[in-house]
Amino acid sequence: MDFTLWDIVRNLLTGLQWTLLLSLVAFICGGMAGLALVFARLSPIQPLRIAARLYIELFQGTPLLMQLFLMFFGLSLLGLEVSAWFAAALALTLFTSAFLAEIWRGCVEAIPQGQWEASSSLAMTRFEQMRHVILPQALRIAVAPTVGFSVQVVKGTAVTSIIGFTELTKTGGMLANATFKPFLVYGLVALGYFVLCYPLSFAARRLERRLNATAA
Amino acid sequence: MAYQFDFQPVFAQGDRLLQGALFTLELTALGMLFGIGLGIVGAVVRAWRIKPFDMLFGVYVELIRNTPFIVQLFFIFFGLPALGLRMNEWQAGALAMVINLGAYSTEIIRAGIEAVPRSQLEAAAALAMSRMETFRHVVLRPALASVWPALSSQVVIVMLGSAVCSQISIEELTFAANFIQSRNFRAFETYLVTTLLYLVMAILIRQLLAWIGQRFVMRRR
What we know:
The structure holds two protein chains of two kinds. By secondary structure, chain A is mostly helical.
């Protein structure tokens, strides 16, 4: 079977959609889990703090590929029928949550201590302090690094090709084998990721510069 | 029936895992040495706007930082032979790691160089230091010292990322794990032990780099 250039591009675009979808799911779910983790990481309850630290250390200190394998084979040990898509989404969500939690913790800790003291002197509960005083301020400094990290999530999805999820990289691998044009195909695959990631990197840099300008 | 965990078949292959871990460390060491070297060159070129290479390095950095490592690896190993650049899996893997870390360390070290105050250069000139001396003692050393923690984290990230090198059949740690689980069918146990090995390696590298940083980079003269 002969592949025209358009056939290659068309198939790669289909793969790109899955990459995009997986990135979005991982980023949104990972963001929610990450928020819960920040609360745990900064909680006054020590065991909760320690558990969150261990979780973050574990996911930041091991390869994403291993996390995928463990999820893929571990869930099936529990008797669950896992698709590559489900294992990939779950592993990437956990991976993302650990990194976002650590980024956001830094942002929360950058808020001056006086803000905590002032809000507690207003008899706010810890949750109210977070909700009305600390998080709104932390959010401002968190935007740039969060957007920057989204690039890592998009790139991370490429590893899911190894457990057989047919996203952009996997599609590229199959096309390279079928067409015997690995240079062209992998070049296009790289271009696909670049098109997704570069605007995010660019936005992160702009946001950071703007924040520094207003802070100065 | 509940699943019975059995780690014995994994530990029986301990030698193979350790050998794989050693290869991962070797690959990382190689990537670190040449990657940071490339990063220093790139950072100087970018920070001092040496034309036309600063543009070239700018494009290189953006291309690498906005594409996944596995795609870079595949492009080098499967794509480049089409241009007549044929290499074995080790060469391709090492090259990919150097190129990847080179791009990140270019950006990291550049930030360090740009943070060196102008007055320091003027002071060096006032002391009649040669260009080379100024670069070594006034620019590079303080620049590396200020970005050393960021550089160390990036080395750990690259080490963990090297797990995908197993896909072009480099016999590093993940390759060993894949091999073992394909023989004993204890996939979960094998990958669990391997994951912990990576965690230990990550902690060790972090400690080692912190020590190197204290001892050699941030040392006051």
